[in-house]
């Protein structure tokens, strides 16, 4: 009698079309593409990465700041050795363990006065965005407004929570307020619900644009009139050229601004610590009032449980060492980024004549400069630039869908030296000449 032979098991197969629709969105490919290009061309000089300058890193920093935070817990908070150990090594509270220091820092540096309980410490600023957008997206009517061009991490986060993003023109002043009002009116007439508008008032990524003080006040007035929340992202505000304007949150008297912050640029990117200030009142089903931060903490508890207390301790030690002032702590960083920005702008002027067809904006701070070129600056052009000329940049097409984006590229000056900027601009000039 012959034996029955079992059929071979079929391997599992997943289809992208049967996964979350956001996985097919081009925006989720942008980060990976740009990282892969830099790895494929390691000899190319990168004017693409918006990263802190690595010469400012010190391998002894984490240990030193951990010690400072342990001393703070024992000397300033009166913790026993057992309590110090538990704070560092246990899970900790969902909202974070350095929320009080962040609130103090906001008061010292930005004149933002908030209850520490309105602060949620997050795994980088990216988690702060995901928590906030997840909470705001209630049903299919909801949309998010965002000043274009927009940080790709924001549009990617919105895609993951099924929240469509409607672009608001940035204009020359950082936001077109008339266009914002028209958009809100139109969307509501269509039965849509604009939940908030995302803005980066200081040296925005990718545009480098900033809002002047009048625009900030007018935007807050418009948001109140339109009954619209504002999501303010401020990773670059400290790296200014001498004029430190108040944040929207510092001017916010109606608890209408949700404020995103990050220690990636101002402390240590490897710690992956950010935060969100969410002091907008939330009325419960029973009529009680709480904070929007409490609602975000519910989501965080199911997403990342809490932010690494060890990473928070490094940031906390950084804060207490400098009197809870990132302005004081980042004096050297600000000097480096200002030096590099001026060197980049001077270098562009030296290499591209007025009749070259190449134009650029002139931010007074931050990391980024946007360059207009007389040819298509897409991913294929970037590959050619990297392979044939050894210089990397970012196509503006990754940040917004607009006809102008096809002939624009973003340069970053943060992670390179003046000598590297010179060499990179020589290569960029040769690349531009080759495309004419």
Outline the structure in words.
The chain is of the alpha/beta class and 436 residues long. The chain is 42% helix and 15% strand. The chain contains 15 helices and 15 strands. It has helices at residues 27-40, 61-76, 81-89, 99-110, 124-136, 152-160, 177-189, 213-226, 248-251, 292-303, 309-321, 326-329, 331-351, 379-389, 418-435, and strands at residues 45-46, 119-123, 142-148, 165-169, 193-199, 229-233, 257-262, 273-277, 281-283, 289-291, 359-360, 368-372, 391-392, 394-395, 408-412. The strands form four sheets. Strands 2-8-7-6-5-3-4 form a seven-stranded mixed beta sheet, with helices on both faces. It has a four-stranded antiparallel beta sheet with strand order 11-12-15-14, with helices on one face. Helix 7 (177-189) packs parallel to helix 8 (213-226) and helix 13 (331-351) packs parallel to helix 15. The mean pLDDT is 95.
